[in-house]
Amino acid sequence: MLTSARQFVDWMQQTALPRFLHQGVISLADGTRCFAESLPNVTPVIRSRVQNRQLYVYAHATRSGWLDAGNTLSKVLEHGLAPFRDAAGIFYFSNADDENARQQNAYEQAFALLALSELFALTGESRFLQRAHRIHDWMQQHLALAEGGYALNARRPPLLSQNPNMHLFEAMIGWWQLTGDKRWEQEAHRLFTLFHQHLFDTQRQCLMEFFAAGWRPDLPQSQHLDPGHHHEWTWLLYQYQTIAGVDTRPWRSALQRFAISYGENKTSGAVMNEINADGTAYRAECRLWCQTERLKADVVACLETEDSAAPERLEHHCEQLMAHYVTGETGRPYCDEINAHGQRSAQPAPASTLYHLYVAARQVERLLPSSDAK
Length: 374
Description:
GO terms for molecular function: isomerase activity. The protein has helices at 3-23, 48-63, 70-80, 106-123, 126-142, 162-179, 182-199, 227-244, 249-262, 288-304, 310-326, 353-365; strands at residues 25-27, 33-35, 38-39, 160-161, 200-201, 206-207, 210-211, 224-225, 274-276, 281-283, 286-287, 337-338, 349-350. With 374 residues, it is mainly alpha-helical. It has a three-stranded antiparallel sheet with strand order 8-9-10. Strand 1 (25-27) and strand 2 form a beta hairpin. The longest helix has 21 residues, at 3-23. The chain is globular, with a radius of gyration of 20 Å. The two termini are 16 Å apart.
């Protein structure tokens, strides 16, 4: 029985999602409406990724009948995005008025593309497709690298990161599934090639995070790895396999072996923020998003393998997530991080984590009996 899994999905649909919809939308100084950075909201500085992640979540939830956020989506789309992007629709890091905030990063564009895919799916309006084309064209002009993948931002620093390329891969799969357009299909194939040629370390059998020019993992920070991203890539590679027909099991199996062997905090059992390439802990704190990505990898195991223990692991991880991060919270929807000893942080709940929770909940929902999935 997936009792805790059902509780997690119900909490997401009945508590977390409505709460951010009703309490997590604020008015800016000019009266426009946008999504808040956190609950409770304590800062006027808001990252643009919050806008695009919330747009994605609430467009998908509306389209799939979980709730109706149409009015809020319309208000945010009407004027609320203006502080977060330039006249061409390219997103800044945040709405703050400084040089770093005005940075136009690959990461922000990836989430804009993801949000636009779901807005297009919800409405069928061509403006969302046109915006996606403009952002993708801008990325290819200003961020694309000769060696494959994309630079961190328009300044093209020598430091390279797998993370924005991973989320662009996610957006490309979404657009490809939605439209069948060769633009998105070819980009998805290119990013998969980047993964297996450069991001995945064949010798260590793990995912590298940071690179020097040419995707060389020989920087000091190249030794720091994210177990959560191992789980996230596991799920994304399964999505890619489903649409592309490419067998990604060898990479997924390796990613799971590494993450399970080295990525879990021995005290709490939660997925740690970062580890060293030799498998030792680097940042033994455990953010909530890392746990949601493990759930998504668990769902893949349940759907694809004959491992009879996979549903039991999923149930245990759902129970663990609720116990560590949700149960007992009142002033905020969830705790975003526990320390190395399993104690909760006191920080507000970042709105950006809702996207991770939502996608995980919708994946877990696939395994629930239809009478249980509300």
